[in-house]
Amino acid sequence: MNNPLRYTDPSGHLSCSANHVADGDCSDYSTILILQDFYGITLEAGNLGEFLTKEISAIYSAVQEVGEKFSQVIGGGLTSGEAFKKIYHRVTFLKGNRFADGGTGGLSSECSGITSGGCTSGAHLINFASMAGGGYSGARGVLRNRNNVVHELGHAFGWTSTGKDAYADLGIAIANQPKSYSREGEGGKSYGFASPFGTLDWQMSYTNASSPNEIFADQFLGWTFDTWGDLATDQAEARSNWMYNHMAGYLGGE
Length: 254
Fold this sequence. Notes:
- By secondary structure, the protein is of the alpha/beta class.
- The chain folds into 2 domains: 7-157, no CATH class; 166-251, no CATH class.
- It is built from 8 helices and 6 strands, in the order ββαβααβββααααα.
- A hairpin with a 7-residue loop joins β1 and β2 (16-17).
- α5 (166-176) crosses α7 and α7 crosses α8.
- The longest helix is centred in the N-terminal third of the chain and has 22 residues, at 53-74.
- The chain is globular, with a radius of gyration of 18 Å.
């Protein structure tokens, strides 16, 4: 958690806070509790059941990385969890839809009826029916699952008061330089993103090729890990520069 004065990690597997568990005993401090207490994350079962262990691991890894990136940019010695909560405050990850979605009660969202992939309905609610790693075994499946969650957190950032101008600002850049920022490049190739066209490891979709919302979410993924395509290309350099310049402004960092 980047704070050895506050947390201990005697087993090498989980962080422990003396406020929650016996000194040096991590046995009952689960990943779900870490997400809840340190990051403000709630995992909620929906009409598609509970999140799988591998999905929980992907969410945990993603929010840690996003929080760490926020911490680096914001400064002030914030931990990963503190920086994450400073921006998002709280986020619910919902498996599918709530049982009342699409019918009764005031619980429905614009993601009602989701049957595959992820869908973000606001700064505080991300729905998942499935993650991008499904069908891929080993390290690549783990990578795609985590990256899919980071992509959706990019959408959620666009809904926060901090990132409220992100979509509009990128829309202006797309209008002025479509060849630099379009989601799909010329000749069926995707320029600027780390994965080759067609793999969807570092770019979650090729639909909505000119959508600032989708392009921003993919660029948020690249920015989080500082992972882009060949920076010698105009597109990769443009995306990287845009994100670093604008995210520093949105987050109020140096």
